């Protein structure tokens, strides 16, 4: 299975979810929020096509602490490939950033992730003070695996 990616952040980040996280930016976004800082990730045809298992091996070699954030673009545009990737990285602590609502995240993905940031970026609600979100309407949370079923 293939996945279209934008990039993998060169150094781990303290700003993209709890911990010291390697960040995978997936290519393609179907939301196109006004004021988006990452417009180069909108057009999926401009992404780099990668085979999921080969990408998983690269992430293993680049992410020794196994803390990975998947961002975009909009990862849920390629939900099947994301599911395959996080299944191969089953021993990783995964954080998923989506602009969609939590109710739109497939349950099988929710079951495999630890943290979720959800909601679209809204320019006039932009915040520099709330951790791990770009606008105050967005929610960042640890997934409760008991009640998310
Ligand atoms: S969901 Fe993210 S990448 Fe997509 S337009 Fe909104 S802010 Fe940009």
Average pLDDT confidence is: 96
Bound molecules: iron/sulfur cluster
From the spread of the alpha carbons, the general shape counts as: globular
CATH-defined architecture? Alpha-Beta Barrel
- The CATH class: Alpha Beta
The tally of strands reads 7
| Unreliable runs | none
What does the radius of gyration come to? 14 Å
Quickly count the helices: 3
**How would you classify the helix and strand content by structural class?**
alpha/beta
Instruction: Note the beta-strand portion.
Output: 15-25%
Helices and strands, in N-to-C order?
A: EEEHEHEHEE
How do the strands line up in the largest sheet? 3-1-2-4-5-6-7
Distance between the terminal alpha carbons, to the nearest Å? 27 Å
Which percent range fits the helix content? Answer: 10-25%
CATH domain fold name? TIM Barrel
Note the main sheet. Answer: 7 strands, mixed
Topology (elements, then pairings):
Blueprint: E1 2-8, E2 22-26, E3 48-51, H1 52-62, E4 67-71, H2 79-88, E5 93-97, H3 107-110, E6 115-118, E7 139-142
Parallel strand pairs: 2-4, 4-5, 5-6
Antiparallel strand pairs: 1-2, 1-3, 6-7
Helix pairs in contact: 1-2
Bound molecules: iron/sulfur cluster.
Iron/sulfur cluster (SF4) binds at residues 29, 31-33, 36, 38, 41, 72-74, 99, 120-121.
Descriptive overview:
With 149 residues, the chain is α/β, with parallel strands linked by helices. It has one domain: TIM Barrel, CATH 3.20.20.70. Helices cover 17% and strands 23% of the residues. It is built from three helices and seven strands; from the N terminus they run βββαβαβαββ. The chain has a seven-stranded mixed β-sheet with strand order 3-1-2-4-5-6-7. Helix 2 links the parallel strand 4 (67-71) and strand 5 (93-97). It is globular. The model has no long low-confidence stretch (mean pLDDT 96). Bound molecules: iron/sulfur cluster. Residues 29, 31-33, 36, 38, 41, 72-74, 99, 120-121 line the site of iron/sulfur cluster (SF4).
């Amino acid at each position: 299975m293939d996945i279209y990616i934008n990039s993998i952040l060169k150094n781990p980040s303290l700003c993209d979810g709890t911990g010291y996280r390697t960040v995978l930016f997936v290519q393609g976004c179907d939301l196109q929020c006004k004021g988006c800082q990452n417009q180069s990730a909108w057009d999926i045809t401009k992404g780099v096509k990668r085979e999921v298992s080969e990408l998983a091996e690269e992430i293993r070699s680049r992410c020794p602490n196994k803390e990975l954030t998947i961002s975009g673009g909009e990862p849920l545009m390629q939900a099947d490939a994301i599911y395959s990737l996080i299944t191969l990285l089953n021993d990783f602590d995964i954080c998923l950033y989506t602009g969609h609502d939590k109710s739109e995240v497939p349950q099988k993905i929710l079951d495999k992730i630890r943290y979720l940031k959800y909601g679209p970026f809204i320019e006039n609600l932009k915040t520099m003070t709330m951790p791990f979100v770009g606008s105050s309407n967005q929610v960042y949370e640890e997934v409760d695996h008991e009640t998310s079923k």
